[in-house]
Design a protein that fits this description.
Distance between the termini: 76 Å
Number of strands: 6
Number of domains: 1
Radius of gyration: 27 Å
Helix content: 10-25%
Number of helices: 2
Oligomer: single chain
Order of helices and strands: HHEEEEEE
């Protein structure tokens, strides 16, 4: 075929062939497969760090609250208007009427769906911190660095922490004197950080540590200064309350 005057042929040497295009697509797919787990791991680590920072701020806010209330921390009450989140709202610059909307009280590692939750905050308080002279008990068996103050809670539970074997960590009223355990309770969503599904907890001395599943039972320590075997129990069946 003879080129006509003024007619130019396309430069085929610079065009992609189908094989070259497939090679480029394959390389991109390979890079994505390599980078995606790394990026996901970095995101999980960042979320866990954010939660740990929030727990430290909650700890500090609780101590500011205690300084204004004769040394007593904001624990659990029977009134929804007196939840600990509302009582420390002024110390974390949150709306006292809707403290759960504060980003400080929302752990980015927690699932977004909190339907049915009695309290949408991501964190719970060990209500035993309301005990008089809790930090100075003479019969304590564990140092403050080993006693949990607050941490990740089951998403469907109220504003207190729960153990893996179903114990509600609520300090009993003087006229009640019993600990409650739901026979079908579980708190799997407490563990939500990293590949190992860890739980973040801020301890009574202010440092944040992680716990693995299987380490937060009622008799495993971490909750009380004294021996929990002397605390009477009462089992209640509330159904599957907490995923």
């Amino acid at each position: 075929m003879v080129d006509q005057p003024g007619e130019t042929r396309p430069d085929v040497s610079s065009a992609f062939t189908l094989v070259e295009l497939l090679v480029v697509i394959g390389l991109i797919a390979t890079l994505l497969a390599i980078l995606t787990p790394t990026l996901a791991g970095a995101r999980r680590s960042a979320d866990s760090t954010a939660c740990a920072s929030s727990l430290r701020q909650i700890y500090l806010a609780q101590h500011l609250y205690a300084a204004d209330h004769q040394g007593r921390f904001a624990g659990i009450t029977s009134s929804a208007d007196e939840r600990w989140e509302r009582r420390i709202a002024r110390y974390i610059a949150a709306d006292p009427l809707r403290p759960e909307e504060s980003r400080l009280l929302q752990c980015p590692s927690a699932p977004e769906n909190r339907s049915g939750s009695m309290n949408p905050s991501s964190y719970g308080i060990n209500s035993w911190v309301m005990m008089p002279a809790w930090r100075m008990r003479s019969d304590r068996k564990m140092p403050a660095s080993q006693i949990i103050f607050a941490g990740d809670k089951s998403l469907q539970s109220d504003d207190f922490l729960t153990t893996e074997d179903g114990w509600f960590l609520v300090h009993p009223a003087p006229d009640f004197g019993r600990q409650f355990r739901s026979v079908s309770h579980s708190s799997r969503s407490t563990y939500r950080h990293g590949r190992d599904n860890l739980a973040n907890m801020v301890m009574a001395d202010g440092h944040v540590t992680t716990f693995r599943p299987g380490t937060l039972g009622r008799t495993s320590g971490h909750w009380y200064w004294s021996d929990v075997s002397s605390i009477p129990e009462r089992q209640i069946d509330q159904g599957n309350c907490c995923p």
